[in-house]
Amino acid sequence: MNSHRDNEPGTGGDAQGRRPLRRAWRPLLPALVLMLTCAGATVGSAAAVAPDAPDSLAAPAVDDRRLHLAAVELVGATRTDLATVYRYLPLRPGQAIDQAALVAAVEELRAGGLFRSVDFYTRPGEGRGQLVLVLEVVEHRLDLRWAAGNTNLDGWYLVPAMVAFDNAFGDGGNLDLRWRIGLRHDAIVLRYGQPRVGDGRSYWNLEAGAGRTERPYFADGVEFLHGVDASGLAFAFGRHVDERRLVEFGLDVATVDVAHHSTAHTRSQDDSVDYGQEIPEEDLPPAIREAVGRSARAAAHLDWQYDSRPARSTAGTPTGGLWGRAKGGLVVQEGRPGHATLEMDLRSYRAVPGGVLAARLRGQWVGRGGGLPRPALPRRPVQPAWLLHRRAVAARRRHLAMGGLTRVPQSHPLRCPRHEAGRHPVRRRGSRRRRRCR
């Protein structure tokens, strides 16, 4: 019986009874390991794909956690209120916000230059999902700026010194007094402007200034400068139609004083006209002599502009885009008939290796009666000084080679000294022979 009990399968007393079971499971072990490996890979791939799931699947969870702006608090402002801040800050209470929108709005406020510095933080509001934006600002103070270069679309000028008071009265307006220097031009200008009015797309500025401009003209191969003093008021109001288009209306009232004499800026070949020599009124060209004196002038203009240039620039020059202007104006001056003007200006910029390639196309029309409020150019065709000097030297050489038989025009700066004394050669009637100078 003992031998029968020992030979029963499943008894724990004999190790040989378990060998058939182990031999039966051994072929299935590789298949079991492969199934477990595949199952683990499937779970891992599902977890990796879950963050990239469509937004529609995660929308309900995001809506439940959406934050809203409850209020905006201003800390550190001594003269600026929230109504002015909202013209520069694109956020309003009750608006849904996230971190990206919050940072972008504060950066736009900083770029507007309303405050000297802007810092911010947030705190929870009274309700669930509400957020309060706290702005810590520092107001502008009176600032003295040196050697500030400025450019405008009508030219280039340098401001060696400027006293600026940005946001002077807490309404966003900028007040400054600047000394402006340009090519043959210098002026003192007091300016106050509102860069953003109403919905932030309109602006206006008012200027009061006085300055002097040296207007060049050429006569007989010599360059002369004629001084023009002007003082008055200028007002402009504009509106940005969109990000690229602008419409502006301007009014300018000034007193213009044209000097009674010109000053030579170059020297003639025969030293008859010296550098710095003053030319009296009776010797001025007729077109300039007519404009001499003081007169009042009023001008109005309507300006349309298109600007697609990027903010990025190289050495102060845009790196691409177009700028265009169509400007119409009406000028009324004391003692002269009024006239209309029309100006077209187109500029193109393109970045090239080593710099920027710029091209400009400009045209202007002045109506009849448009006597310029500044000294006009001589009515004779204006020619380069080097060409006039060359012709004068050639005429002088011919005159000396012929022993004074040839005649040099009296309007020429290189005349024979005897001609200057009034003894000009005359042509005899019916004869080609000329009389010598005596």
Helix content class: 10-25%
Q: Spans of 5+ residues with little confidence (pLDDT < 50)?
A: 1-18, 41-64, 371-383, 406-438
Strand content: 35-45%
Looking at the chains present, what oligomeric state does this protein adopt? single chain
Distance between the termini: 173 Å
Shape: elongated
Summarize model confidence as the mean pLDDT: 77
- Summarize the main sheet: 12 strands, antiparallel
The total strand number stands at 18
Number of helices: 9
Structural class: alpha+beta
Compute the gyration radius: what is it? 42 Å
Secondary-structure element series? HHHHEHEHEEEEEEEEEEHEEEEEEHH
Description:
The chain has helices at residues 2-7, 19-25, 29-49, 55-64, 82-85, 99-111, 286-289, 385-401, 417-420; strands at 67-75, 96-97, 117-124, 130-138, 143-152, 155-166, 174-182, 185-197, 202-219, 222-240, 245-264, 278-279, 293-307, 313-314, 317-318, 320-333, 336-352, 355-366. Mean pLDDT is 77; it is low at 1-18, 41-64, 371-383 and 406-438. The chain has nine helices and 18 strands. It is α+β, with helices and mostly antiparallel strands and 438 residues long. The strands form three sheets. Strands 5, 6, 7, 8, 9, 10, 11, 12, 13, 16, 17 and 18 form a twelve-stranded antiparallel beta sheet that branches. Strands 2-1-4-3 form a four-stranded mixed beta sheet, covered by helices on one side. The chain is elongated.
Write the layout of secondary structure elements.
Layout: H1 2-7, H2 19-25, H3 29-49, H4 55-64, E1 67-75, H5 82-85, E2 96-97, H6 99-111, E3 117-124, E4 130-138, E5 143-152, E6 155-166, E7 174-182, E8 185-197, E9 202-219, E10 222-240, E11 245-264, E12 278-279, H7 286-289, E13 293-307, E14 313-314, E15 317-318, E16 320-333, E17 336-352, E18 355-366, H8 385-401, H9 417-420
